[in-house]
Amino acid sequence: MKNDRVPETFRSVNGLGSLIRVYRKPPLNRLCHLALFAGYWVGCALLFPAVKIADHWTRGSFLIMACFIGAGAYWGWRISTWWRKTIGVYADGLAFVEGGETKVLKWTDLAWIKMFDLITYIHGVRSSRYRRCEIAPGVGEPFSINSGVAADGEFYDQVARGTFTHFWRLAAEAYNAGDWVDFGPIRINKSLGLELGGKRFEWNELAQITTRNGRIQVVPQRGKFTGTRSVAAHRVRNVSVCLRFVEELLSPNRPPV
Hints:
Blueprint: H1 8-11, E1 19-24, H2 27-47, H3 59-80, E2 85-90, E3 93-98, E4 101-106, E5 110-122, E6 125-137, E7 143-146, H4 154-176, E8 181-182, E9 186-189, E10 193-196, E11 199-201, E12 206-212, E13 215-220, H5 224-227, E14 229-232, H6 239-250
Antiparallel strand pairs: 1-2, 2-3, 3-4, 5-6, 6-7, 8-9, 9-10, 10-11, 12-13, 13-14
């Protein structure tokens, strides 16, 4: 485990197995963000009187101020997504602490997860990366964990690995029972085939399922240029299970699911 200073809250959690890692915004990083945020509003206070044109307030003046206020509000919202939030990842689930309240979830308590990964490039050079994991428990409302708390990719990989067996079992049970396996915009059925965005493909019509530029593409055997359908990967629930499940179903020598 990488964390030497583990909050007592995470040491006392029972039923989740061994603690793997605790994710939280480092104190120095928090202080820097808050200092920059305060400096931004001080700069706005100094700038706003200077946006008057010919000593008169104009529509352009108010538009400039609205843009700065909107950017500041968005920055404040981003800070609120990680402020006082800490996450502990365990072998069998995770503990989510916010404002003194602890939520404990086993991997088997979850209904689905979604992964969002956005990389920004400026002149061909990677400048930033924003990641978000949306987690839906079986009972209760979905919640999100983003790069503000878990900045590196290890957290997202741990969640995907930890939930894979559980979500695979749920998908296999539904598939073998003849029910629709629901991955959100993608649904599969043992006898009816695969459905994407209202377009249904029979199993014998499909050639492959691939990922490209952050999108999942379903390619038919005939009419690939006009018949291919795609969907953004971050919209698909349990995307790693979905891709692996369909790939095995399309394999010529596939084993029973």
